[in-house]
Amino acid sequence: MESPQDVRLRLTVHYDGSAFHGWQSQPDRRTVQGELLSALSNLADRSVSIIGAGRTDAGVHATGQVACVDMPASWTPENLRRSLNALLPPEIWIKSSSIAQPDFHPRYDAIARTYRYQVGIEPKARSPFHARTCWVLENQLDHELLESGAGELVGKHSFEAFAKSGQPERGYHCSVSAANWSHWDLGLRFEITANRYLHRMVRYLVGTMVDIARGKRHKEDLGRLLRTEPGPTTSPPAPPKGLFLVHVQYPEHSALPQVPRAPSRSTANV
Predict the structure, then answer these.
(1) What is the pTM of this model?
(2) Catalytic (active-site) positions
């Protein structure tokens, strides 16, 4: 519970999602938010609440999750970061802590989020030290087809075909400002930045693009799905273990008065 002597602190959080049933607290389930609440309440010597920028699904990782918590003003950002890292399990690490505006909201104030999906193609991707953070595939992928597909995503489109569950009250349109595939040590990775996401949207996109790049479906299918044409359906979603929330973007002048909180920016599980 917030008190007049509290200070709002902004945290940047890393976590290995394979150890958790997602971000959001659930009864009798181990979650990232649950572990943070336990540690923060211990340090504050009272019950606290913590809000995250994105509610990642079970098995999804983060290197750029943003969260905020109201703590007694005696806590400095650096002291809180150090104390949290001493209490939290090894699968969670607080990268940074800073003082936030009193009305800062990591979810509603966000104007864009970036996700990265890793596909492992090289033999060493099968190592137990790598396999839990990438989708391991045996076949090579056509990089040109992947890049062509990513280019089709940029702009404002209906992603209704790429959502597990509907969000009719907010609509299905999302604005993608960047999407690309690139090489990394173990294979290929996809990165996408958008103003909002539908539930499991990134994983459905990756699953569909990978099937196109493997020659399992026509390259025209992606465009037809974006245009919600009758006929094609998405491929199964890519496994959650390859997905990372890597960055959350906020307005430069976040200290300006906040507009009323409208649910126009999606907080869907990804």
Answers:
(1) 0.90
(2) 57
